[in-house]
Amino acid sequence: AQGGGEEMNLLVDPAPTAYTLGDKEYPLNTSFRFGILFEQMMLDDALSNREKGLAALELFFPGKLPTGENEAGSAILWFYNCGKPWKRGSTARMRRAGKVFDYDQDDGYIFAAFLEQYGVDLEQVQDLHWWKFKAMFDALRPDCLFSKIVEWRSTDLTQVKDPKEKKFIQEMKQVYRLRKSVDEQEKLDLIADALMGGGDLSKL
Question: Cβ(78)–Cβ(5) under 8 Å?
Answer without folding.
Answer: yes
